[in-house]
Amino acid sequence: xxxxxxxxxxxxxxVGSPLxxxxxxxxxxxxxxxxxRQAAGRGLQLLFxxxxxxxxxxxxxxxxxxxxxxxxxxxxxxxxxxxSDSGFYLCAWSATRGFGxxxxxxxxxxxxxx
Amino acid sequence: xxxxxxxPGPFNVPEGATVAFNCTYSNSASQSFFWYRQDCRKEPKxxxxxxxxxxxxxxxxxxxxxxxxxxxxxxxxxxxxDSATYLCVVNAGGGFKTIFGAGxxxxxxx
Lengths: 114, 110
Known about the structure:
The structure holds 2 protein chains of 2 kinds. The N and C termini of chain A lie far apart (38 Å). Helix content of chain A is 0%, strand content 57%. In chain A, β7 (64-70) and β8 (73-78) form a beta hairpin. Chain A is an all-beta fold. The radius of gyration of chain B is 13 Å and the shape is globular. Chain B is an all-beta fold. The A-B interface holds A 32, 34, 36, 42-44, 46, 49, 51, 57, 88, 90, 92, 94, 96-108, 110 and B 31-32, 34, 41-46, 49, 87, 89, 91, 93-95, 97-103.
């Protein structure tokens, strides 16, 4: 069966510090991978998605970046965090082919920038 | 226009009530449709897929109207435990991205 791992669960970082969140998927190959952010009381905002190694599409211009060094690894980074980067970050995967391609989420990282 | 739009909510209903959520999508090539549920401070989880013929799962009924490009979710006999945010989700299939609506908050009160 497929599983998705995301860490850390919570993170408190000072303004201006770097960020690295990692997500890995097991039990499937060539998944679509996503990073979402959810601000408090708000909906999901798609940040990045990837259909393959090294292929990253950015949805929202900001000081965040994403990388996919391996097929089942997706990393969200920032060189300098802003207060506005606080939120609930969710990694997700979906199958690339066929119908019923629902997305499965990791448990999320709650980031507080202070 | 947003790719996926939902009723803004919140919906406040008493136990036992029937509540309906609507969602519209802009990409006519969309192939897969879902409703997700998100509890407070948790990740979203799949509630049900939405099929062209409509489908039912207990108290939950999902409908798809491709011509009008909208999806609906009906919850009958609401329970306190139904309180959550309900997210409409659309995927165009293949390598296309999965798009989530902003969600509709539901509060079921005793």
